[in-house]
Specification:
The chain has 258 residues and is an alpha+beta fold. The chain folds into 2 domains: 133 residues, no CATH class; 82 residues, no CATH class. Helix content is 33%, strand content 9%. The chain has a two-stranded antiparallel sheet with strand order 1-4. It has a two-stranded antiparallel sheet with strand order 2-3. Strands 5-6 form a two-stranded antiparallel ribbon. It starts with 5 loop residues before the first helix and ends in a 5-residue tail after the last helix. The relative contact order is 0.12.
Length: 258
């Protein structure tokens, strides 16, 4: 009987540990990643020539990014913390909305696939393990079997707004002119101004028809790279009954009970 290849096995997973997600995003099998008790650190059982050259640095960077996103509420996760507590709690910590008294357990903290994909898409990162159809840039590949000239033109026109310098015209008019000017590049074979306007309307975010001066993102006060905090982030209760030292020095000076 023919078994499933590793890539298909990962497709069956609905959620991923931080370690598993880090490996898949960086481009290596999670099965190769393990904790080396002798050295007290994470490493790889083997690295093949087919694996990325920077895989060690990539996995650690992705892991750190995932952990920080979870801690800041930008990525929803089912949080599990390490049993060993290496942190001292002081009163200044109580001023925060929430805090961790233990570090995240990177093997048991899990992220749902849909949340992970959304987080990656927000950052414009499209690893093959989670985006088998390829990067969004593939819409510009005219050799792609599903290539759509109109889709390519509309998305390219919308992307041009990020660096556009519009002088006393509406966003829709700018988009219409841009698509018309670049129509040959996309092999649109369109001559009708009405057709260009219809395509521009798809990419047009300003339905009021405001006259723009300069870059539209600045004009409308937008920030293309603002990442919203997850609406599903967990609020933690911090009602604690304990004697809490004022400072870290006070915590270290506390006499041991023996």
């Amino acid at each position: 009987m023919q078994g499933l290849v590793e890539e298909d096995l990962f497709k069956l997973m609905d959620d991923f540990s931080i370690n598993d997600a880090s490996c898949l995003i960086a481009g290596i099998s999670p099965h190769k990643y393990y904790f080396e008790d002798q050295y007290g650190e994470w490493g790889f059982r083997e690295i093949n020539n087919s694996d990325p050259d920077n895989i060690r640095e990539a996995v650690e960077l992705v892991k750190k990014s995932l952990c920080n996103a979870i801690k800041k509420g930008k990525l929803k996760a089912t949080v599990v913390v390490d049993n060993h507590n290496t942190k001292f709690l002081t009163k200044i910590d109580m001023q925060a909305d929430w805090f961790l008294t233990h570090e995240l357990d990177v093997t048991r903290t899990t992220i749902e696939k849909t949340d992970l994909i959304e987080w990656l898409r927000d950052r414009g990162v499209y690893p093959l393990s989670f985006f088998p159809q390829g990067k969004i840039a593939d819409i510009g590949n005219q050799s792609h079997p599903l290539y759509s000239p109109k889709l390519h033109a509309v998305v390219s026109a919308w992307e041009s707004l990020f660096t556009a310098d519009i002088q006393s015209t509406t966003t829709k008019k700018y988009l219409t002119d841009w698509i018309s000017t670049h129509s040959e590049k996309f092999s649109l074979n369109i001559k009708s101004p009405t057709k260009f306007e219809e395509m521009a309307e798809i990419a047009n975010f300003d339905k009021r028809g405001v006259t723009v001066f300069g870059n539209p993102l600045h004009h409308f006060g937008g920030d293309a790279y603002t990442i919203k905090e997850s609406s599903n982030s967990t609020q933690l209760n911090k009602n604690i009954l304990a004697e809490i030292p004022e400072t870290l020095a006070d915590a270290l000076d506390t006499e041991l009970p023996f």
